[in-house]
Structure formats: structure tokens, C-alpha cells
Amino acid sequence: MLTLKNVSAGYGGGDVLHDVSFTIAAGDRLAVMGANGCGKSTMLRAIAGVLPHRGEVLLQSRSTTRMKRREIARHIAMLAQISGIYFSYSVFDTVMMGRYLHMQDRVFGAPTEEDRARVEACLEAVVLLDMQDREITQLSGGQLQRVFLA
After folding, report:
1. What does the pLDDT read at residue 19?
2. Is 109 inside a domain boundary?
3. Structural domain contains residue 103
4. CB atoms inside a 10 Å sphere around CB 91
């Protein structure tokens, strides 16, 4: 469950997001719509903990300000609109990087069969399983976003 209580945030001393409150239960979905500059991305950055905010962001009834970054990252991720590519990895290897937090005891070890199965399931969910060996530099912008989502 994710709860926001009177969350405000902004840039350079000015708030873009003003006193937002809501609760999303496990399995619920929420669509956030609005004009450019109204605070949609600002709210997501505050939830993810990458932008300072006032008010409370609660994850499973715990304040994210009392949680370690690693713990928050196990539950919340943010996919930016624009992503730069600095190295060319395969689609499969790029998605496998998302398993890093779950591989903490074997950082330098090989992925397990469970890791591989989860990556394949994620690639199947975004309809990219057949492109798992392709280099990410060879993908369209939409395909790349789907890889990052996976």
C-alpha cells in the first residue's frame, strides 16, 4: 500500500505539487493526468525519494524517510521519460540488471535459474522476449522504454 499525506514538492523554493493526499492499495491502479508542468513527474520523484518533499510518503504504512534507499528501491522504481544509453548491453542483460537488489549475496556470481526465469517473464510481459539477444542500441525509442520497464 502506498499513501501520500499532504505531500508538497517543487524546485528552487517554489512548490509545483501542493498538499496531495491519496492511498493506493495493493493491486489498485492509478492514472495521473494533467497539463505539462502541473506536477505529475514531481509527485513521482517525491514518491521515489529522489526529490525532497514535505508531508508524508508511506510505503506499507512506514514512512519512506525512515527507510533505507535499498529498501525503498525494492518496492518503488521510476522510469524516466528520457534515458541515455552509455553502454550497449543486450536486452536480456539490461533487464537482468534490475535483479541486482535481489542478488546482494552473490553480486559477482552468475544469475540463478530463478533470476533468468524472472527476466524472461518480464520480457514476455512487455512483448520483447524474441529480442532478448539484441543490443539495446539497436532498438527503437519505444522498445527501449519497454526494456527499461521490464
Report:
1. 96
2. yes
3. yes
4. 26
Q: How many residues does the chain have?
A: 150
The pTM score is 0.62
Whole-angstrom CA distances from 83 to 44, 58, 112 are: 16, 28, 28
Q: Number of structural domains, the chain?
A: 2
58 and 98 assigned to the same domain = no
105: confidence class by pLDDT, cuts 50, 70, 90: low
Under a CB-based contact definition with an 8 Å cutoff, are residues 92 and 126 in contact?
no
Pair 47, 57: CB distance under 8 Å: yes
Listed in sequence order, the DSSP H helices in 2-68 are: 40-48
3-class secondary structure per residue, 72-99: HHCCCCCCCCCCCCCCCCEHHHHHHHHH
Same domain, yes or no: 7 and 58:
yes
**Residue ranges making up the domain that contains 38:** 2-73
Residue 150 neighbours by CB distance under 10 Å: 23
> Cell numbers at residue 94, please?
539490461
Query: Do 6 and 67 lie in a common domain?
Result: yes
User: In the chain, what percentage of residues exceed pLDDT 70?
Assistant: 92
**110 DSSP assignment:** P
Asked whether residue 85 is assigned to any structural domain, the reply reads: no
